[in-house]
């Protein structure tokens, strides 16, 4: 088996900052509530001209450059997103064009906030299959575009961002050590968009009832996230025959600081060993892990030889983990 390795990282973060204090002027909420219940202080919101493929292009070019490659070297493009530019064509195809990449395969997949983890596992499998050398994996979301800005229970949570990595063959002991994925569709209606698909196509009624916006039963999702992320973290360690003590960095999906703290405590990791971006970016779904990874690699926290455990949970429900030796 070929060992897969992350060769380069990148991120695309919109410039506009929306703080909790800005939200206080929009809905009945407070900075205090949001910080205490979620850990979020601000999030980034893209402008009306910017779609997911634009953020993905910025992140991808950075990842490709940091891998010492050019877009011509990419031979497969995988994009995890629940906020594509359009239902079709895929954001991955739009990205292929914007990057000036060759006519290589490109497709989107929907795995909610676990999108990036699903993408990494697919990249590893494709690499082992043998036909691909340099695979671009992107997690990108424009959640502000599907957020109901009149619903205080969700609009304080989300933000926009893209994160990207290039996956290639490892020449040494570094790379992906183990992976774990799962899903349970029976709980899908706890976190979803009711209308706009084939079940409930867009009509004036669906628009009037605000059914094209994200809906979430926060409490139920919280409980499921804690359990699934705990299990995913332990499974990745077990499959790699490693223990909690071997983890140098935890990169959890950034949905709620209370979930992040629970995981860190379970793994006996101090907060300094956990990459946290939720205070600055909010929940960016599929983009949350790759942007956190890009930040921690770029600022030198993650160094060669470190064991990095990435754990996610999201709509579907989906969950998963990837353990990497950097
Ligand atoms: O990314 C995919 C996975 N997503 C997650 O993992 C998210 C998981 N869920 C959560 O993070 C939390 O459930 C939330 C942050 C969404 C909500 O926190 P909570 O502690 O579960 O709050 P709650 O929904 O139980 O609401 C508690 C109270 C309610 O008031 P009452 O009924 O107790 O009077 C809400 O109406 O807080 C109220 N509330 C708010 N108050 C001020 C809800 N949203 C707000 C708000 N500002 N923005």
How does this model look, in words?
The chain contains eleven helices and 13 strands. The chain has helices at about 20-25, 30-40, 50-65, 90-100, 115-130, 150-155, 205-210, 220-240, 255-265, 280, 290-300, and strands spanning about 5-10, 15-20, 40-45, 75-80, 105-110, 135-140, 160-170, 175-185, 190, 215, 250, 305-315, 320-325. The protein has two domains: about 5-170, Thiolase/Chalcone synthase (Peroxisomal Thiolase, Chain A, domain 1, 3-Layer(aba) Sandwich); about 175-325, Thiolase/Chalcone synthase (Peroxisomal Thiolase, Chain A, domain 1), CATH 3.40.47. The model has no long low-confidence stretch (mean pLDDT about 95). The protein is α/β, with parallel strands linked by helices and about 325 residues long. Bound molecules: oxa(dethia)-CoA. Oxa(dethia)-CoA binds near residues 34, 225 and 256.
Secondary-structure map:
Layout: E1 4-12, E2 17-19, H1 20-24, H2 31-38, E3 42-44, H3 52-66, E4 76-80, H4 91-99, E5 106-109, H5 115-129, E6 135-142, H6 152-155, E7 160-169, E8 175-183, E9 191-192, H7 204-208, E10 215-216, H8 218-239, E11 249-252, H9 257-266, H10 278-281, H11 288-298, E12 307-314, E13 318-325
Parallel strand pairs: 4-5, 4-6, 11-12
Antiparallel strand pairs: 1-7, 2-3, 6-7, 8-13, 9-10, 12-13
Helix pairs in contact: 3-4, 8-9
This protein binds oxa(dethia)-CoA.
Oxa(dethia)-CoA (UT7) binds at residues 29, 33-34, 37-38, 113, 152-153, 156, 218-219, 221-222, 225, 255-256, 259, 283, 285, 313-314.
Under the CATH scheme, which class of the largest domain? Alpha Beta
Structural class: alpha/beta
Q: How much beta, percentage-wise?
A: 15-25%
Cα Rg: 19 Å
Overall mean pLDDT stands at 97
> What share of the residues lie within helices?
25-40%
Number of strands: 13
Distance between the termini: 18 Å
């Amino acid at each position: 088996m070929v060992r897969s390795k992350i060769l380069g990282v990148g991120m695309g973060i919109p410039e506009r900052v929306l703080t909790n204090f800005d939200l206080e002027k929009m809905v009945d909420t407070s900075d205090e509530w949001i910080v205490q219940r979620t850990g979020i202080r601000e999030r980034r919101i893209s402008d009306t001209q910017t779609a997911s493929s634009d953020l993905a292009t910025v992140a991808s070019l950075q990842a490709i450059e940091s891998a010492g490659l050019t877009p011509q070297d990419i031979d497969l493009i995988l994009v995890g997103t629940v906020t594509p530019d359009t239902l079709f064509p895929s954001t991955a195809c739009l990205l292929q064009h914007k990057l000036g990449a060759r006519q290589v395969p490109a497709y989107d997949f929907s795995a909610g906030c676990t999108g990036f983890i699903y993408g990494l596992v697919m990249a590893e499998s494709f690499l082992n299959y043998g036909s691909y050398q340099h695979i671009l994996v992107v997690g990108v979301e424009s959640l502000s575009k599907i957020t109901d800005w009149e619903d205080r229970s969700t609009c304080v949570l989300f933000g926009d961002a893209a994160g990207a990595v290039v996956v290639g063959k490892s020449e040494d002991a570094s790379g992906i050590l183990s992976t774990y994925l799962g899903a349970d569709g029976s709980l899908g209606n706890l976190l979803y968009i009711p209308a706009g698909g084939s079940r409930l196509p867009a009509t004036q009624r669906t628009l009037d009832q605000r059914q094209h916006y994200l809906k979430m039963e926060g409490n139920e999702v919280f409980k499921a996230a804690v359990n699934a992320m705990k299990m995913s973290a332990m499974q990745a360690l077990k499959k790699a025959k490693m223990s909690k003590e071997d983890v140098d960095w935890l990169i959890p999906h950034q949905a709620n600081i209370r979930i992040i703290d629970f995981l860190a405590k379970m793994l006996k990791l101090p907060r300094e060993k956990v990459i946290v971006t939720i205070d600055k970016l909010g929940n960016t779904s599929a983009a949350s892990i790759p942007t956190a990874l890009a930040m921690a690699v770029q600022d030198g926290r993650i160094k060669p030889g470190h064991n990095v455990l990435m754990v996610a949970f999201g709509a579907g429900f989906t969950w998963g983990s990837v353990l990497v030796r950097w």
